[in-house]
Amino acid sequence: MRSTVAILTDSCASIPEDMIKQLNIEIVPYYVHRGTEIIRDLVDMTREEFFRWLATAKELPKSATPGPGDYLAAFQRLAKRAREIVTVCMTSKGSGAYQAATVAKEMAAKELPDLRIEVVDTLQVAMCHGWSAIEAARAALAGASLEKVVERAKEVARKSTMIQTADTLRYLYMGGRIGRATHLVGTLLNIKPLIGMEDGVITPLGQARSRRQAYRKMVEIMAQKVGLGARIKIGYVHAAAPEEAEKLRSIVEPNFDCQESLITELSLALGVHTGPGTVGLGFFPV
Fold this sequence. Notes:
This protein is an alpha/beta fold. Helix content is 38%, strand content 27%.
């Protein structure tokens, strides 16, 4: 069935590229400013090249939100193949994308009056944001109405949980995205902080003395959320650390009934704030 509802999201959703094509999801790139150079997230530079450079960077690059013009251009492209658009944005409390998309929606109302556009604030980031867009796209492809697609995007975002760990919180701190986890910045180098997202803001979930301990703590947090053995869909994210993502997967999956499982790499715009070596997951109960 050909869907009349198109799904638009941004590069921070960190959805695997083959899935973006398969589900016909349109992506608006974030921007990364490296000195005077402006890089379109996932367009102008590979993740491998960027994270290799970031590990040696003396000055942290800055990420920038796509503007209303970027979203309007995406709406214009999508209007050629769809009558309705659902735009799935990362948390409005950590980015201006939701506001930019909302402004673009008002602009499109004058230029494309027959086009219906809904903008969803997931209050999530990374694969939790990604799952919301993925499940919305699947609902659209199954022939769901605009209202049902929006409902599915919101439901998945509401049920999703993000947990990440990194070798350092330096990147989050320097980028001003530390949220409620500021007190973890001064932890010793051998401590692995765990962070999550609560009501759209980065929040501390604890700490561990090694990566393996951190991964086991992730399982404990997941069990508290949904119970051991629960049916879930899960995405593992990493920044230049695929082997660690596989290790995390091997520790998590014996404890849950994983209906769908994937590994993906964070977008450049998120990697700016987490730094190379970050590993985490985003999941929701089925």
